[in-house]
Amino acid sequence: MSDTAIEHYWDTLVTPYELWAEPTSARLASAALDLIAPSTGSSVLDVAAGTGALALAAAERGLHVRAIDSSSRMVDRLTERLGSLAGCSAEVMDATKLLYDDDEFDAAFSVLGVMYFGPATMTALTEMVRVVRPGGVIGVVHWARPVGGGPMFLPLARAVERLDDPEVGTLEIPVTTAYLEGPEVEEALRGAGCTDVQSETAVVDSPTPAPETFLAELDPFFGMFPQYRAAVARHPDRFRALVAEEVRLVERGENGHPVAHANIAYGRVSH
């Protein structure tokens, strides 16, 4: 997809994202805040904030949060949720061209955000470093396994494979980026100018819809895959049955587990 198409795609996901993706992001955001522990009253930037998993958790801890995202509808929803919290706001902004002054924040975070940016990842990280004061902290959270968007995609890929229809093909879940292992995420932060970089792995519950409603609830997420669209069109009943069966297997722990594995990496700004 083009950058414009991707932004429009995220505009369509506000409700399902908040319902089914944010619970996982929120648990990871809380783990990152626990680990890094910004002091009360610190100014924090949340980059690629989505519906606000980290921004809301940080605001609840007494931090002054500014959040940005490229999706205007995500920002509208986050603005609504932040309400009148003092020192907290959200706005549409390009993460690779932050409209903030140098050294403006005490910390900057991105939870399941900028590490998706491919070749632009380093630009976004460098921008985060630029706007954080010397001695401040940069923290990023990213998948520790190449599942392209969390455990919800695994039953889908397995069901597509079981159709064994050449006209549908195989659902190749895109690897999120080259930065998957903890040391690789650490190296990205070092490359952006951070020092004292370290990381920890977090494992959190990742709730998904019930088997019977799995496809209906997550259809907006899956619509980006042509193989999914072909499977629904060519084998609607069988495909839904196979997906439900795969979800039940995951729920029972027989073919994966409904948990998310992520790396939390963080480092100090030294410029």
Automatic annotation (TrEMBL):
GO molecular function, one term: methyltransferase activity
Pfam families registered for this protein in UniProt: Methyltransf_25 (PF13649)
Methyltransferase domain segment(s): 44-136
Coiled coil: none
Listed InterPro entries: Methyltransf_25, SAM-dependent_MTases_sf
CDD domains to which the protein is assigned, alphabetical: AdoMet_MTases
Protein name: Methyltransferase domain-containing protein
Source organism of this protein record: Streptomyces brasiliensis
